[in-house]
Request: fold
Amino acid sequence: AQKVTQAQTEISVVEKEDVTLDCVYETRDTTYYLFWYKQPPSGELVFLIRRNSFDEQNEISGRYSWNFQKSTSSFNFTITASQVVDSAVYFCALSDLYGGATNKLIFGTGTLLAVQP
Amino acid sequence: SQTIHQWPATLVQPVGSPLSLECTVEGTSNPNLYWYRQAAGRGLQLLFYSVGIGQISSEVPQNLSASRPQDRQFILSSKKLLLSDSGFYLCAWSVRSIGANVLTFGAGSRLTVL
Reply:
């Protein structure tokens, strides 16, 4: 079954702290893709990153970094030196490739990150 | 560049009334289109997706329906709203190809059923 688990419902940190958002997935596919999206208070989902199952290299983009570990089926997201503007709900998602070009995503329940000044 | 529009942004409707949410995409052809719902628990649930005009797939049985009358238009409807239909509805599009393309979301429509 395709499933994404984000066990952390809410996290609160003080500005400049580092924070890691956890994501654990289950999939029947040997090839799959993982995503992170950010949902600020305005509501629109903003794409952050897509990784495929063959690329386990960690990725860094500015203050954001992602750790993909196939052995533990995890795709964790770390924000370094958090800022108030990072406050949002963050979603991890897994591709559902069954059926070819339907391109569906299975989302986790999200983690609400509150960064206090 | 591609843009996606959703309207209305906010809607308050009585139980039993009809619903129509509209989504259009500009700057692309033959997109895949999706309707997701985000209920109070924040999870995103896929309601419908479409890979072409008139082709609608439903993910969960419910009180809602979807239609795609034109290539870049996707409509979410209900004949009689229930209280449980309240939520935040997000339309999204992606390139139509095998693989896992990025979904780009609209700004959402917040529906409150009273």
Chain B has a mean pLDDT of 92. DSSP finds no helices and eleven strands in chain B. Chain B touches chain A at residues 32, 34, 36, 41-46, 49, 51, 57, 88, 90, 92, 94-108, 110 (CB under 8 Å).
